[in-house]
């Protein structure tokens, strides 16, 4: 897919090079569009003051907002923690759900309480868990990760029956 874009173009009387640059882009894009026909995504926008012109039709923006419940973010963090190598489970108690989050602006801060496998390096698992949770917050939820605090509450040791 080929995308040619001229974003926030401002044509001024002093800046004739920008005007010729835009005209050149427009000329190339139109010729490429004829050549590639339907295989070309063509987006060129002009911003001159408050006026916006589009050379081709674009999809209208839908008004509204998307709200994500904090419980959904907590669930995503719990699932990410459980999928991280070295984490046996998220620590849950009557007073603790395993994840505490705080959302400020578009930034998610989290405290995650986990129980690790006894054979794993605690520091490496903690850093991996921080990276995995940060990635999940930014990619899945589309928000910015803030402080991701990992609290190791315990280790799982094999029982004597399974050691035999």
TrEMBL record:
It holds the Pfam family Asp23. Belongs to the asp23 family. This is Uncharacterized conserved protein YloU, alkaline shock protein (Asp23) family. It comes from Flexilinea flocculi.
């Amino acid at each position: 897919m080929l995308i040619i874009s001229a974003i926030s173009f401002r044509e001024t009387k002093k800046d004739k090079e920008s005007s010729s640059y835009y005209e050149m882009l427009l000329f190339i894009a139109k010729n490429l569009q004829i050549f590639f026909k339907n295989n070309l995504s063509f987006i060129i926008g002009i911003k001159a003051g408050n006026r916006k012109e589009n050379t081709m039709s674009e999809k209208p923006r839908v008004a509204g907002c998307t709200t994500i419940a904090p419980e959904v973010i907590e669930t995503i963090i719990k699932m990410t923690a459980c999928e991280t190598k070295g984490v046996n489970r998220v620590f849950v108690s009557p007073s603790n759900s395993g994840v505490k989050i705080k959302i400020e602006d578009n930034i998610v801060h989290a405290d995650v309480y986990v129980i690790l496998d006894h054979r794993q390096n605690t520091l490496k698992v903690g850093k991996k868990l921080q990276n995995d949770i940060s990635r999940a917050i930014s990619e899945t939820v589309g928000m910015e990760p803030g402080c991701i605090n990992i609290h190791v509450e315990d280790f799982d040791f094999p029982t004597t029956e399974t050691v035999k």
